[in-house]
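queue> pop job 88
queue> type: inverse folding (structure -> sequence)
queue> payload:
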């Protein structure tokens, strides 16, 4: 970025606390760090609601892709579902780095160290760009082998590779947008990303059919059109979020030289971000493991699982919003040494999450079949997906407990638990349970669905106990 006209701040300057743009006047900045002083319930609502609304539209964005994929063919729909764990690897690493940057920036702001916060913001962006280049290269080289392991061949494999090659080319935009949002999350501003996700949804609704079926000078591209539309939306989001990151004031006094890679900030971001990234990466690997076992039951089962995941994601949106609120509030209050507010944040987020997840579970159980018929007219796909969703309705509360407790530990700079529980929940336990139930006991798909339920609840119970103990341990005597 270009040098600012503002003079560089020193430690003797008045400390600019967390800056949240005034909705009525975006260019004026509020200078009160109320994330460490305002009532916790109020702050949870202020952070969670915009995140949840934004992610609702992000999920609906994916739902639109799934809908149009189903219009192309069942094979196209299955190919997109098969591509999910591969693409999720990119998202997981970017999200992990962003989580680490958010925690470090939030702790610096809570501790009234704006220069440190600015340095981590710049270096987080630079780190994300470098990582994206490596991921694109590795992804293109390994994708054919991964898809073959999942049972794709001939036309099925060709569609998977066509779809993913375009997404790999846009990797830098997927990760850059997460790094920009990390800065906004650290200052408690979740509205901007929400606005982008809403606008991105409507833009995708226009671009998907245009690129898939062609017209107005654009050739019909089929599945490739869905991928291209996704990349173009991310490019637009990078520009929009970049403008608003500059407006936060956090980068004031910075120069283009602060984007140059530096070993110490990279190492610190990696130390806090890679455990979070590995946690999310284990989710990608976990989806890979699940898809591997499901693939043995044919394309119909893979397509049903892909559709079911999209439906499930909609009902998990409040949990993801609470995850962001937990991380932001606990990181800031940990930096400010407001330990009483850390405990209250965890308690309130778990309470709100349990209530919303219970309501979502009831809705999912009662309307499972209707949800499935929105995306597929294939009766076999609908039947398999309905069974999956009814069992998943029992798991939503477990996801909330797990997400909130892991975010709380990340906020107090104890990220390694996320890796351990992720390895257990996504890889070790699923492989053992699924193999036993499907290959030895021959329970079939039901063994996979019930296995997911049992493993998730076990992980949630472990996370709850561990988080409570670690937070109690940092409380002053």
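queue> result:
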């Amino acid at each position: 970025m270009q040098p600012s006209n503002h003079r560089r701040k020193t430690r003797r300057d008045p400390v600019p606390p967390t800056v949240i743009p005034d909705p009525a006047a975006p260019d004026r900045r509020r200078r009160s760090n109320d994330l460490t002083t305002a009532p916790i319930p109020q702050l949870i609502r202020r952070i969670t609601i915009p995140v949840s609304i934004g992610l609702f539209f992000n999920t609906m964005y994916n739902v639109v892709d799934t809908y149009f994929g189903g219009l192309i063919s069942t094979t196209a729909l299955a190919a997109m579902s098969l591509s999910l764990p591969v693409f999720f690897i990119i998202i997981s690493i970017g999200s992990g780095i962003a989580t680490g940057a958010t925690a470090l920036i939030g702790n610096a702001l809570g501790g009234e160290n704006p220069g440190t916060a600015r340095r981590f913001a710049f270096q987080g962006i630079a780190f994300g760009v470098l990582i994206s280049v490596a991921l694109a290269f590795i992804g293109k080289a390994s994708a054919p082998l991964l898809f073959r392991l999942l049972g794709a061949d001939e036309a099925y494999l060709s569609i998977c590779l066509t779809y993913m090659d375009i997404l790999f080319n846009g990797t830098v935009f997927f990760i850059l947008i997460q790094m920009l949002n990390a800065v906004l999350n650290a200052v408690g501003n979740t509205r901007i990303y929400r606005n982008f996700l809403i606008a991105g949804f409507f833009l995708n609704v226009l671009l998907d059919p245009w690129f898939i079926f062609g017209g107005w000078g654009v050739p019909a591209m089929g599945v490739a059109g869905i991928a291209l539309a996704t990349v173009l939306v991310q490019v637009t989001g990078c520009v929009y979020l970049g403008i608003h990151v500059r407006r936060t004031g956090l980068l004031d006094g910075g120069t283009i030289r602060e984007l140059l890679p530096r070993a110490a900030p990279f190492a610190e971001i990696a130390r806090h971000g890679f455990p979070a990234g590995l946690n999310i990466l284990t989710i990608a690997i976990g989806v890979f493991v699940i898809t591997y076992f499901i693939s043995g039951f044919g394309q119909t089962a893979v397509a049903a699982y892909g559709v079911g995941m999209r439906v499930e994601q909609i009902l998990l949106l409040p949990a993801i919003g609470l995850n962001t609120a937990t991380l932001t509030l606990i990181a800031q209050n940990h930096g400010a040494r407001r330990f009483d507010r850390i405990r209250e944040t965890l308690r309130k987020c778990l309470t709100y999450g349990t209530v919303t997840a219970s309501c979502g579970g009831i809705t999912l159980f009662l309307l499972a079949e209707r949800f499935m018929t929105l995306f597929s007219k294939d009766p076999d796909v609908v039947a398999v997906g309905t069974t999956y969703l009814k069992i998943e309705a029992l798991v939503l509360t477990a996801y909330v407990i797990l997400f909130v407790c892991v975010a709380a530990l990340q906020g107090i700079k104890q990220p390694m638990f996320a890796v351990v529980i992720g390895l257990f929940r996504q890889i070790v336990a699923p492989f053992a349970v699924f193999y036993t139930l499907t290959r030895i006991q021959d329970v079939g798909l039901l063994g996979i669905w019930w296995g997911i339920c049992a493993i998730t609840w076990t992980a949630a119970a472990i996370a709850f106990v561990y988080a409570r103990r670690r937070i109690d341990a940092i409380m002053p005597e």
